[in-house]
Specification:
Its main location: secreted. This is Polygalacturonase. GO terms for molecular function: hydrolase activity, acting on glycosyl bonds. The chain is an all-beta fold. The chain has one domain. The protein contains no helices and eight strands. A five-stranded parallel β-sheet has the order 1-3-5-7-8, with no helix packed on it. It has a three-stranded parallel β-sheet with strand order 2-4-6, with no helix packed on it. The radius of gyration is 16 Å and the shape is globular.
């Protein structure tokens, strides 16, 4: 894939508090990239409008696997932005080989927020921000819970 994006837009169910939205079991495999800004992304805060409010609820993400993803990037190799209330869990990475293009671009390190899973093989670059395992169940939910 050259200078294109694989983009999944997911809409949750609305108007029914008994339903929750979840993405489970997504596989990205055997992808060759060339000069892609952000090759590996999970963004629970994504907004396709010019004005969006930052919401604390998000679509739950579980069981997303990236394997054999190779190529070059222009900005940042990995961007995982998950919700404090609904962290991303069981994110699996293996066979990741992403190299920056020439130094004419400003490069950023991989970014992970509230993203939990496993590195099943060494990655290039190292994706040290992924939290290994699962999130704690007894998380602080607000400033009122802090002593």
């Amino acid at each position: 894939m050259t200078k294109r994006s694989i983009f999944a837009k997911l809409s949750g169910l609305s108007g029914n508090p008994n339903w929750s939205s979840v993405v489970i079991g997504v596989l990205f495999s055997n992808i060759q990239l060339n000069e892609v800004q952000l090759p590996i992304v999970i963004d629970q805060f994504y907004c396709d409008h010019t004005t969006c409010k930052n919401q604390t609820s998000a679509v739950a993400v579980e069981g997303v696997t990236y394997e054999k993803i190779k190529g070059t990037y222009t900005v940042k190799p990995v961007h995982f932005a998950c919700s404090d209330n609904f962290p991303c869990v069981d994110v699996q990475l293996s066979g990741i080989e992403l190299r920056p293009v020439k130094e004419r671009y400003h490069m950023y390190d991989p970014f992970c927020w509230q993203t939990f899973g496993e590195l099943n093989s060494p990655t290039l670059p190292p994706i040290d921000c992924l939290q290994i395992g699962k999130p704690a169940r007894n998380r602080v939910q607000s400033d009122h819970d802090v002593c």
